[in-house]
């Protein structure tokens, strides 16, 4: 398994990582490790950067001059499954939650799309990134998901590669077994999951989906799911069919 | 679909429901409808009680003497899919969230089980019930999930009916396609999903699962999922295989 050791702190950094090369700690990380977790010099911390794999590192120095030195390579770098997550942004805490969950479920990118019924016009991308990184740290994700700037739905659809399947969850879709639908879908160079806003897609948006060459309208049962729940549920099905749960 | 009308408030009550028979409002409900939502007499509210189906009702009276009178039956009562949710309770907000999500995903019962690594010993069952009811109201669930008192894991396993499949998610399970595992599982009189605490099951617990006649150890991919995420992910797979998403 990717991570069974929950007691060792795990940190994502921007620096290159190599054995015996100390990584100076940013002030927030130094404060977290030394003051919040009260780690002492010699303490073990897991380090990754999304490029060089994962290392066990040893804490040295004190206060603002603290550093982490990789002492053992634990995992080689992995590439994420080709699973993109397109979503109508929600407000505040629900957006934080949705970003964390999508990353935890293994999405390689977070792509905000502005649909006609999307209630959120401005997006704090730094906060989105921070939520994504935190989810990586906590759940043993070894890559760093791409964070995209918001696009209109029209622009996102126009830019979508033809060899990638786009799956959209639609509360008005006729009830149909999602496993059968996914089994029947052809293998693709990648898969995008599109989750609309609370309130769903409008008719013009639905029509634009049906004009796409490689699209699957997925039913998630007879009840309405909240957007963040639908995201986790659909990503589970997609990971099992196309991703790295196989 | 069960619910596309998100603008009409939806309320779960204890009273029997029948056409033209007014239901007096409890003080909290009266306050919510009249003061928070600022509804006026004649306003439309959806009503269900888990037994008599769902009705459109009309608000009448004022202040503490307000009532809702069913004026049209919208849905017949449905029975839930035979999907029970057994879980090691988490703390506070995460437990609220987990209960809401399980109900939203269609679990017919919430059964807290105390495993050896469970950190939470006491459980506020009224709060669990309130979270479950709120999820029913918001997501168009028409039944009321059973809320069980906490049991030890041993007691829960001993009481588990032999004709029901018990699925447990295990972060130490070898990576294997969950769809294949579920497809191979025989049809059962019902399915229970058991999600352990953060930290997982211990060896003695795992051994006790393997002695059960009808059990499936499910892998949810190569990363560790938080307990509430694993619950939604696994319930999606189970709904698609055994439940009412087919």
Q: Report the CATH superfamily of the largest domain in chain A.
A: SPOUT methyltransferase, trefoil knot domain
Structural class of chain A: alpha/beta
Strand count, sense and barrel status of the largest sheet of chain A are: 7 strands, parallel
The total of beta strands of chain A comes to 12
Average per-residue pLDDT of chain A, rounded, comes to 92
Give a verbal description of the structure.
The structure is a homodimer of 246-residue chains. Chain A is of the alpha/beta class. The first copy, chain A, has 2 domains: 10-75, Ribosomal Protein L25, Chain P, CATH 2.40.240.20; 83-241, 3-Layer(aba) Sandwich (Alpha/beta knot), CATH 3.40.1280. Chain A is 30% helix and 22% strand. Chain A is built from 7 helices and 12 strands. Chain A has helices at 27-36, 92-104, 125-139, 153-159, 178-184, 203-210, 227-241; strands spanning 10-12, 23-24, 44-48, 54-60, 67-75, 83-87, 109-114, 146-147, 151-152, 165-169, 191-195, 215-218. In chain A, the strands form 2 sheets. In chain A, strands 6, 7, 8, 9, 10, 11 and 12 form a 7-stranded parallel sheet that branches. In chain A, helix 2 (92-104) crosses helix 3. The longest helix of chain A has 15 residues, at 125-139. Chain A is elongated, with a radius of gyration of 20 Å. The two termini of chain A are 14 Å apart. The model of chain A has no long low-confidence stretch (mean pLDDT 92). At the A-B interface, helix 7 of A face helix 7 of B.
